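Lab channel / #folding
Pinned by the channel admin:
"Please post every new chain as: sequence first, then the structure tokens as a reply. Keep commentary short and put observations after the output so the thread stays searchable."

First post following the new format, from NK:
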Amino acid sequence: MKVKVLSRNPDDYVRETKLDIQRVPRNYDPSLHPFEVPREYTRALNATKLERVFAKPFLASLDGHRDGVNCMAKHPKSLSTMLSGSCDGELKVWNLTKRECVRTLQAHEGFVRGMVVRFCGTSFFTVGDDKTIKQWKMETPGYGEEEEPLNTILGKSVFTSIDHHQKEGVFVTCGQQVDIWDEQRSSPIRSFSWGVDSFSCVRFNPVETELLASCASDRSIVLYDMREATPLKKVIMNMRSNTLCWNPMEAYNFTCSNEDYNLYTYDMRYLDKPFTVHMDHVSAVLDVDYSPTGKEFVSASFDKTIRIFPKDSGHSRLLSASDEMNIRLWKANAAEKLGLLAPREKAAVNYSQKLKEKFQHHPQIRRISRHRHLPKSIYSQSKELRVMKEARRRKERNVRKHSKPGSMPVVTEKEKHVVTVVK
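Reply from TO:
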């Protein structure tokens, strides 16, 4: 006769000390969990509500500038270091960890139009309304030393933007033309122009480092190759683009901010139309910058709002509104808890995130997660823009309905904003 005896190992369920966490056994047999989906839906709904409850994106305000902040630059080697330049020519270096200014200098007479940190992080360059390019040490001068630039180059016209090569001692500026400079020379080694009065922005590609792009005053975006003697090609849009930014993870993609309240993401190999149009702003978009992961970018607009867009989505989530002489530090994920997380906290956050992704298309969860309280002015302008767009669509449908078949082709939203591509 065979007798089965119950045998348990105390190590599986007995705590070593009273401070240890109790081990909870679980049977994953689906027949024992008949209400698993309704229970997970309830948990996803609660997690979505709690995300909105704990949404507190504001971290700190960096005060100190006496005039409006006109430009900022990131340090390539230090996440906690950031530079800002104001309209009175003053430049400040900030420590974001301590949330304080560590250095102040009078860089230019008039506006600081642009600044960039060298790829090694040892120095930085600034351009201003005084037609000069200045190179400064990143380290604070010692006791008794004067705050003097390492190098000063006097140009023929006002420079509006500057950017540095990712691997070499070369930088590029733009104003009346696009100039490429060697750090050891006082005159540009190459200049590009294509029948344009002025340029507002120029950026090096962070992946394909020989490529660069600029925004021009004739509503065009011009692409260049440092190894070529002439520009590659340009796309002319209906309205002028203010700035652009390359995707740091996808070498051929860039996003430009436009005066027509939209942002456009292009593939530089196919400039006939943008592959994504980002619409949510209610005034001209002034600046744009990508996250290091390349999955999201942030835009700033004349409507006093900052919005975060996924790279492949046409709509955003609103961050903030401000029109003051300070710099504000924000969280990209408003409900994210900062600091170290315990293992159980990490597991709970990951579990909630997966539940929200699983049930993201359910009406109640989608409504709560997308809902934002807009300022009254933004809400009114958005409503007015929706009415105007619907009126234009209705007019086009009526004209097409009463016209000869084929005489009024349907133009998509991506195609209607591009005039032509010149090579």
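NK: Helices lie at 36-53, 343-358, 363-370, 376-401.
TO: also worth noting, The chain has a mean pLDDT of 89.
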